[in-house]
Design a protein that fits this description.
Helix content is 5%, strand content 57%. The chain is mainly beta and 808 residues long. The strands form 16 sheets. A 5-stranded mixed β-sheet has the order 2-9-8-4-6, with no helix packed on it. The protein is flat, with a radius of gyration of 67 Å. Mean pLDDT is 89; it is low at 1-34 and 36-55.
Amino acid sequence: MIRNSSLHILVHRLRLYSRRLCTKAPSLRLFVAITLTLMATLRNSVAYGIAPTPLGSPSLVSVTVNPTSVISGATTSGTVTLSGAADPGGDIVTLSTNNPVVSVPQSVKVLAGQTTANFTVTTNGVGVQTPVVITGALSGVVKTATVTVNPAALISIALNPTTVQTGSSSVASVTLNGLASPTGSVVALSTNNSVASIPSSVTVPAGQTGATFTVSTSGAASVTTATISGTLNGQTQTATLTINPPPLASISLNPAYVVGGGSSTGTVTLVNPAGPSGSTVALSSNNGVATVPPSVAVASGKTTATFSITTTGVNASTTVTITGTLSGASQTATLTITPPTVTSLTLNKTTLTGGSSTSGTVVLTGPAGPLGAQVSLVTTNPAAIIPGSVTVPIGQSSATFPINTTSVAAQATATITASLNSTAQSSTLIVNPPVLTTFTLNPTTIAGINSCVGTLGLSGPAAPGGFMISLASNNPLVQIPPYASIPGGLATAIFSVSTKITSTPTIVTITASANGVTLTQRLTLTPIGPAAVSFAPSALPGGSASSGTVTLNGPASTGGIVVHLSSSATTVAVPASVTVPAGSLSVGFAAKTVAVAAQKPVTITAKTGAVSATGTLTVNPPTLASFAIAPSTVTGGVSATGTITLSGAAPVGGLIVGVTSNQGSAIVLKSVTVPAGKNTESFTVKTEPVAVSTIATVTVNLNEVSKPATLTIQPPSLVSLKLLPSSVIGGKSSVGTATINEAAPASGTIVTLSSNLGSATVPSSITIPAGKTSITFSVTTTKVSAKSTATISASAGGATKTAQLIVS
């Protein structure tokens, strides 16, 4: 489309050009006039926003819609029709509506060669029937069509669920066949039964097709139906809700009376069998002393289910209400919980000796309540001492109490009774007088004139009058008192036993008797003699000595006791006898040993008459004490000395010690023998020349004990450097000689050379051949203008030597 300003310019130029043409060619006047008229028409069309119609273009003949009437929110189809086929580029028909309730595209294009084109007509919600005009325009030609938009109607009302238990609710849904009006569509609601409560209306929001509301129920005693109605724009839809009566018929308890801490079984009963998913009945208790599960499930098809009720102890009778609830309906039952009573009284011991103790245990029918349970206690005899009561702790069903008894001279019977909450239980305790139960002697063996102690014990404390025990000995060598008395309240007594000297071992029987009970002990009398032989130390290397001691079984008699000694092996030498001075218990002696090759235990026997005792002294072979190499550093080819030291003297035949070296440059014998009676021996460690410093480990071994020592083997070092002659004329040579302290190793010894003057040159290094100790080399000089002194340096084995050469 040509812009308006451009058209004005074009018309103006055509007028000027037409004047020139008219003066020159009058016959063109008609053509120019027609052209100017067309241009003016084109300019006016542009000025009014109307696209000019090319000569021969089709025009708009109609705009139609199908269908012409729709529900709000629905769509319809529009069609524009031209008078002929559209131009090659297509023809665009502009579209509009007179009401926003209907929406159309801004334009629709009729494709080249076509006479029609379709477009979509979209509608919005309306509250009343609304006609809307759709306008189409093409090249100044305008056509219209009318579409009628009808308000949405109520098409259904639905309930979910359609069956409920009274007290529960259902959700209702209303559905329109189109979109609600811009202000929303109000659906009037009603019900034909008051057991179903609903709001008076529900509004479907603008642009929506549905809404929900709640249907609440209550008070249905039997199966009841309610019709829910919804009305919009004169149209009514209905739905039916079935309301069932309360499902829970009853709740019962068995037993209805329990002792605190006991349990009961509850049963819930439904009106009708549970559905496919079963029914869950909620449970509760109004008192914490009775506990129920949160719910119980009734299985599908069943009408009953049971649950357990647990209780805790109470101090007084307590009534608890158990409630079951299903679908808002509840049933209750009452459980009575009683405090516990005494069910038993037991004694840990029913018979005991007076003065000893036992315990009693009271057991209740159930656990004690929050304050505990105080059980009263009484006894019929003061010989049994008990507390006035015992408290069973909270939550416990039993408690123990102490029972003490007094000493009695004759058997006594006591009845102990426990009482709680009008109930009582009893047990009988028998208290006996004490009897003689123990008799001991310490010691049970005695030598010579000596004594021991007898100890008597009763089963319990003696009665206030005391307890008498008769004593007797079957041999006059043992003297005892005729009786012993245990004071009242005590259970033990001691007496003294004295003995005389016997020349042979003798066994004496001592008897203690009281109230028909007799106990005996045997006392062994022995002659004075050795009881033990001991050594310090008890184990030692052969060749050393130990201190022995003979100990008697009693003090030596007047004049002393001679003890004869003997050894089981010549390895240990002891004196033939020793004398224990009168009144003494022991005497010492020396035990000398000889060297052994293997460990040897030796038995030393001490004997006097028929009495003897033994002791063991273990003689050990010597072990490696130390090993050293001196000197610890040598130059290869120089020998060192290894010294072995034993912990004791070598036995007869000597002791062979193994020797090894971990380096081939340190050469040792495979073994060294330490001569008999000596504890040291030395051997030679030979070395070979080495090129670098080498550490050799030499190890000696004896009886799996090893001792290592290290030897450092150094390579040869330079000991001298000489020049001959020591003064030359420049251009002449001198001969140098380098000497090392030991023969060079197999690889030779490298000597590095240097000169501090360029007028005297030497090779950078020379090698002393294997086995040699020196080598010569040439010093080459050049002519000099003045006398100079050159220092020649040689290095090998960490040592450096110098010599001076005068060059003239």
